[in-house]
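tool=predict chain=A
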Amino acid sequence: EFEEGRGRLVIPIRHRERALAYAVLGTKQSDETYQAEDVRFAETIASHSSTALQNAHAHYLVLRLQQRMFETIQSLPVAVVLFRKGGLVELHNKAFEVLAGPSSRSNESAPCGSLAAVQTVHPGLAAVLEEVLRQDQPVENRPIQIPDPQQRFLMLSARPLAPDDQGPLRLVVLHDLTEFKQLEETSIPMLIYQLR
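tool=predict ok
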């Protein structure tokens, strides 16, 4: 750890016996050699640096995981939306934007920011979501039919999540079954006709 004769001090920055990095201290400005007290001080700094490096690495991993989770949610074919109290949208994916429509705010390219924004495009969907948000219990696979502006058949699931520092959260997942329902409505009569 101490290289004698060169006036340098090399201290490993360790975590669980694994070297993360090395602190290399050049010669002292006074040209004196490092003393035991200097080495202990450098080792203390290295120990604190180890904690800081581990915290930075953990923070990086959390950010990476959040990014991966966000990308996964965005890529889902089902509509996912996370509501806060009062119908504010905390997070949603592209499938929800397609289903609920663009925001009614001044920035037309912005996604839905609240239940009120959904109300302007799909009042029927907004009414169902408002009812679900008032419930404390989970909702599992509830079929809903929405007549506005075009008829939609959805399967809705909703679940309260643990509140964070900003209050309660509610996760809502909507499966758009409209195409399957239309296929069913056209295929079944055709099959019945063919069976006769």
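Residues 36-75 form the longest helix (40 residues). Residues 1-5, 104-111 have pLDDT under 50 and may be disordered.
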